[in-house]
């Protein structure tokens, strides 16, 4: 397997939204910059959600303004939960939004007070607007494998949602294992079916490492042909509205694994570790990924 994989670091959004400590805009900016300096090709820098619901994401419009002012070159993504989120993201100059869809009503209600179907309707409206606005839309299917409220997700439901939004014009569709409950066998079955139907170029996966199956799930999806993955610097992450969700697969771990397997990621591991250290310093809680200690020793040896 020798080709390239596109990593999106979602730490500045998925990671920081779940921290007790709320970072300042300057601190969030420094984390985004450190991740970009490491060559990560895409960064989900924040979300446009109610600051009452997620105080850590307040001020994402300021963050966008500052990135713009600096001529920030790495492609950025803003997560949105509804039409108001879309309007705020557009006003802030976002060029790509990730709109959240749901494979369960329980999660849709808890996260945004909508049904699955209502979230789908809003997404269809957003797709139409975005088409005219020149904004790319990623449709992220939350609880694509399991829901903390409604239990296991029927793969046929996830397949139906993916199919609907690829045909509705989403630029990409991402399967999110919001609570990190999927296993590699499930991932292989669902991703291989989806790749057979739609090809891999528009599909991505977003895994959490709650049950230590994150990297195994990445591998299962890779074998199905998926080449886009979300991960989080230092393994930060989780959803405040999904009980039991812990950090995303760490960018530190996935970047190391992919490079060792011969995939191109564009990521400089040495600089990535600096971003990982910064995430740890800023939050005080970043787990750091499981490969970090080994990577630090290995890179030190190489340097000496
Ligand atoms: N961004 C900022 N503010 C928003 C918003 C958005 N995307 N959508 C709604 N609001 C505001 C409303 O204008 C309203 O403001 P007001 O109190 O000043 O009038 C307030 O939020 C409440 O809106 P309402 O429509 O009554 O909804 P709610 O209280 O049920 O909250 C959401 C709904 C969607 C705003 C809220 O649940 C939310 O932000 N959820 C996102 C959760 C999240 O980020 N999850 C993790 C990522 S998947
Ligand atoms: Zn997540």
Layout of strands and helices, then pairs:
Blueprint: E1 6-9, H1 11-15, H2 25-37, E2 42-47, H3 60-69, E3 76-80, H4 83-91, E4 96-102, H5 105-112, H6 116-133, E5 136-142, E6 146-147, E7 151-152, H7 155-167, E8 172-177, H8 184-198, E9 203-207, H9 214-224, E10 228-231, H10 251-260, H11 269-283, H12 292-303
Bound molecules: coenzyme A and zinc ion (ZN).
Zinc ion (ZN) binds next to loops.
Could you provide a short overview of the structure?
The chain is of the alpha/beta class and 304 residues long. Helices cover 46% and strands 16% of the residues.
Question: What would your notes on this structure say?
Answer:
By secondary structure, this protein is an alpha/beta fold. The protein has one domain (6-303): TIM Barrel (Alpha-Beta Barrel), CATH 3.20.20. The protein contains twelve helices and ten strands. The chain is globular. The two termini are 31 Å apart. The model has no long low-confidence stretch (mean pLDDT 96). Residues 14, 176, 178, 206, 208, 237, 239, 248 line the site of zinc ion.
